[in-house]
Amino acid sequence: MALERTFSIIKPDATRRNLTGAVNSYIEKAGLRIIAQKRILLTKAQAETFYAVHKERPFFGELVEFMISEPIVVQVLQGDDAVAKYREVMGATNPANAAEGTIRKDFALSVGENSAHGSDSLENAAIEIAQFFSGNEIVG
Ligand code: RTP
Ligand code: MG
């Protein structure tokens, strides 16, 4: 197992319901360490850049509006196999398909308002972390 870093977002539906600490407890219970964290309000341009891979998808406009609707919490998580492990802790994109005990099963409201983001590869994790954190904000 390799020690990795992944990028996480606690999405607006979760911050709105005051679930930051609740989500963090799932992260920490899984053995992942929150090594950087801040609460921010995304600009439209930041949200469009972050989700650029989905710009041709029918839900893109809705996704961007959702992501800028309330503050989010951006995080860097560190641990063994952090990328895959956090995807497991989050559960499937659609909460209807998410496994028991996952963040999305327990908190997500819908496929769009699904409480958490986690990088889908080590390469994307590095790109996403660099979008939101400078090196001296991350203390591993
Ligand atoms: P994420 O990137 O946020 O970690 O989620 P993911 O990998 O599980 O899912 P992805 O396919 O990358 O989709 C990104 C986000 O877009 C929203 N979405 N809405 N209305 C819809 O059908 C739909 N499909 C996706 C979700 O917020 C999803 O997490
Ligand atoms: Mg994704």
UniProtKB/TrEMBL annotation:
Annotated keywords: ATP-binding, Cytoplasm, Kinase, Magnesium, Metal-binding, Nucleotide metabolism, Nucleotide-binding, Phosphoprotein, Transferase
EC id: 2.7.4.6
Organism the protein comes from: Ancylobacter defluvii
Gene that specifies this protein: ndk
Protein name: Nucleoside diphosphate kinase
Domain of life from the UniProt record: Bacteria
Catalytic residues of the enzyme: 117
A Gene Ontology biological process term: UTP biosynthetic process
Cofactor: Mg(2+)
